[in-house]
Design a protein that fits this description.
The complex is a heterodimer of chains A (189) and B (266). Chain A contains 6 helices and no strands. Chain A is mostly helical. Chain A is rod-shaped and about 95 Å long. Chain B is flat and about 70 Å long. Chain B contains 4 helices and 14 strands. Chain B has 266 residues and is an alpha+beta fold. The chains are: A mainly alpha (189), B alpha+beta (266). Chains A and B meet through helix 1 and helix 5 of A and helix 1 and helix 4 of B.
Amino acid sequence: MGGIEIIVVAALGLILIMLVGFLISMYNRLVRLKHNVGKAWSNIDVLLKQRHDELPKLLETVKGYMKHEEGVLTAVTQARTAFLNAQSVPEQAKADGIMTGALKSLFAVSENYPELKADRSFVSFQGRISDIEEQIADRREFYNDSVNIFNIRIEQIPDVFLARILGYTARDLFEAADSDKADVQISFD
Amino acid sequence: MELSQSYLILAIAGGVGLVFFYKGFKNYRRFAMVRDLPRSTVQSLAMGIVEIHGTVLAEETLFTPFSSTTCVYFRYEVEELRKSGKNSRRWVTIAEGAHFVRFWTQDETGRALIDPSDAEFTLAIHREYRHRGGFFGGIKRFVDRLSDWNGSDQSVIDSMPKSELEPVDPAALLNWYTIGDRRIREYCLEPNDKLFMIGTAAHDPEAPGAVIIKKGENNPMFFIGDRSEQGMLKSLRRKWLLSYALSFVLIIGGLALLLHNLGMLN
């Protein structure tokens, strides 16, 4: 084999090694993105459960004061049930939207009850739930960013070919349904 | 050129080429991590690897040794320009050091404590100075004292021979140095600087319930920079492409030289 042929073979060999390395890192990257989405979802789920666990104590506190606000209290209870029954990401996003709306109503109506507003337990629950709501909002954005990065990556060349072989499909974003974005109607029973 | 020299050159070029290949691979992994990790807000940090954009807040500060700038981290390098071979020159590091203190990063949702131990800092040059003449007397004593300096003793900074150092614009395209000159570079992170970092959020063992960002046990990636995410991506992309290109050229170049000396390349 002449010198030029050796150079060409060596260059092709190096290119092949780099190509194999590139394919391996492409596979690893897709796996990492997939798990990032799972982890981001788990991190929202933790907060949703925290909020869910706070609710019975909150409802017990407000029941004594807001005896005539059956509609508002029932809405919170129903929202809690909807969360328990939600399975997929869109269902949980919908349940989260319903819960956020129900809690907004509850806190808005509580403004009419000065004794309730002065109750330390209520103030504490309200503060904790507000903090959790803010964190959920941030983590929802983070989750959606993770999903967006994953969805874009599996549709771009060259990752799209490997993604199809691995059976990766686009994930759902965590977004509220249009009906849940509408203004919350507050009724005073 | 003798054949044994060609083999040696191939071995060196191949070795250096492999080093550049490894660096290229490392920088590519870092590039992919920065690109694929969404930004976290301080308020809702989840434990594990996080990317944060914020500004520097300091409770405790240091002084940079040459420009006396208040900062939370600094690094300095003193290099000397020496002859290397017949017609070339190279910079040789004769002194270097770094100090840091814990600081906070703040974004629109809150602040988080940073422990920058073992962090890799990517910072723009803060100040550059040229020192001419011999390396003895005041400047040598000062640089020697810096090796034991804790970053806060003002008396050490006061002993710096300012008149011997000539400020140089680090952003200039060409700064002229002659053989025997010294180049002093200072890098620092000041309060209110913009910050981009990737590290691991964990529970602070010294403050139950609090979160600290530091180097992770399972994920060694921990870097702090004063550029934006886009600036960091641009820099990393350049590094890995250049590393792979250099690796290719060195390995193929070394092989070509050997084959030329074997008379196989005509």
